[in-house]
């Protein structure tokens, strides 16, 4: 990426020399370099996410910064993602910001020395062996990870508040994201005696069929677990849910804005900004093994009132008051 294409950052000379002189930065002639690794993004969404990363790094448009951000985004092809990770490692970047479980695993497979900042909504980092503990990761990987148990329980609770006498819920799960969020939702469902109808979906065609199957199995609601597949196709996924008249919830706000019933999850721009800020701390000298794993700093609830009316559902007044956004 050419220097003039990089959104530049904090412009003071003091910041420049702090970064240039830190132990983490490698005294490169062009300044510290940060790799951004993502398995699947549309160009429009990629641009938004990179803006948030740059903001977290302290970069602002049209100023001059020593930090170079090198972006590598795959098209969902895991082999290509792994190749991109090895490419960033070969460039000897100072930090890799890796998105999603597949991005984190690709980066981990490419280097055991370069610091990795994960932005991962689907993995338990300790259970997965990525970190020794949340407070002391102990290795070259830290980052922002979702509290899967808490969010799973909250999503089921929201569905139960809206859909009367809900006793069975369809679950759409992309196996490429790993087993941890599915295990968390199964535990939450068992506590409330809710029957889960789990469907493995790692292509858009399988998502289409899964919604049809959930409807045929008599469920009236669906929980769509986190995955780049669902996030990158939120409008189509919302269309499938509406077609089969299913009350559906997922983490991604665009799902509800595009016609899905509910979205409850981290503010994604804030999440990527948080990952960028952690990468900056590493550039300033904090070792990843001593940088505590963080949780998302802000969550948002988006409710589509128009979809609720289409489904014949009454939205509780208290829930509407709690929502960050109501789509009419």
Summarize the amount of helix as a percent range: 40-55%
Per DSSP, the total helix count is: 13
- For the secondary structure, the number of strands is 12
Q: Number of domains in the coordinates?
A: 2
Following the backbone from N to C, one meets helices and strands in this order, namely HEHEHEHEEHEHEHEHHEHEHEHHE
Order of strands, main sheet, comes to: 7-6-8-9-10-11-12
CATH architecture designation of the largest domain: 3-Layer(aba) Sandwich
Percent of residues in beta strands: 15-25%
Distance between the termini: 42 Å
CATH homologous superfamily of the largest domain - what is it? Response regulator
Mean pLDDT, all residues: 88
Q: Round the Cα radius of gyration to an integer and report it.
A: 21 Å
Give the low-pLDDT segments. Answer: 1-29
Shape from CA axes? elongated
Largest sheet: 7 strands, mixed
CATH class of the largest domain: Alpha Beta
What is the CATH topology of the largest domain?
A: Rossmann fold
Descriptive account of the structure:
By secondary structure, the protein is α/β, with parallel strands linked by helices. It has 2 domains: 3-146 and 268-290, Response regulator (Rossmann fold), CATH 3.40.50; 148-266 and 299-327, 3-Layer(aba) Sandwich (Rossmann fold), CATH 3.40.50.2300. It is built from 13 helices and 12 strands. The strands form 2 sheets. A 7-stranded mixed β-sheet has the order 7-6-8-9-10-11-12, with helices on both faces. Helix 3 crosses helix 4 (100-110). The longest helix is centred in the C-terminal third of the chain and has 16 residues, at 268-283. The N and C termini lie far apart (42 Å).
């Amino acid at each position: 990426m050419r220097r003039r294409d990089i959104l530049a950052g904090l412009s003071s000379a003091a910041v420049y020399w702090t970064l240039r002189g830190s132990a983490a930065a490698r005294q490169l002639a062009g300044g510290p370099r940060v790799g951004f690794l993502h398995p699947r993004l549309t160009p429009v969404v990629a641009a938004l996410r990179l803006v948030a990363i740059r903001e977290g790094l302290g970069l602002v448009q049209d100023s001059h910064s020593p930090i170079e951000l090198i972006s590598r985004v795959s098209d969902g092809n895991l082999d290509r993602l792994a190749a991109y990770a090895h490419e960033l490692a070969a460039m000897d970047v100072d930090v890799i910001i890796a998105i999603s479980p597949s991005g984190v695993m690709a980066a981990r497979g490419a280097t055991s020395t370069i610091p990795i900042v994960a932005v991962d909504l689907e993995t338990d980092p300790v259970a997965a062996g990525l970190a020794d503990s949340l407070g002391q990761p102990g290795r070259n990987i830290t980052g922002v990870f979702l509290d899967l148990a808490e969010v799973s329980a909250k999503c089921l609770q929201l569905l139960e508040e809206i859909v009367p006498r809900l006793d069975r819920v369809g679950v759409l799960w992309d196996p490429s994201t790993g087993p941890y969020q599915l295990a968390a939702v199964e535990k939450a469902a068992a506590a409330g005696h809710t029957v889960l109808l789990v469907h493995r979906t790692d292509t858009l065609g399988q998502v289409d069929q899964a919604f049809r199957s959930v409807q045929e199995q008599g469920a009236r609601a669906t929980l769509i677990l986190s995955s780049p597949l669902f996030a990158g196709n939120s409008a189509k996924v919302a269309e499938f849910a509406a077609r089969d008249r299913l009350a559906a919830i997922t983490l991604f706000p665009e799902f509800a804005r595009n016609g899905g019933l509910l979205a409850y999850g981290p503010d994604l721009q804030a999440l990527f900004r948080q990952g960028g800020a952690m990468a900056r701390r590493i550039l300033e000298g904090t070792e990843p093994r001593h940088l505590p794993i963080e949780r998302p700093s802000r969550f948002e609830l988006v409710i589509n009132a128009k979809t609720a009316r289409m489904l014949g559902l009454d939205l509780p007044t208290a829930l509407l008051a709690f929502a960050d956004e109501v789509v009419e």
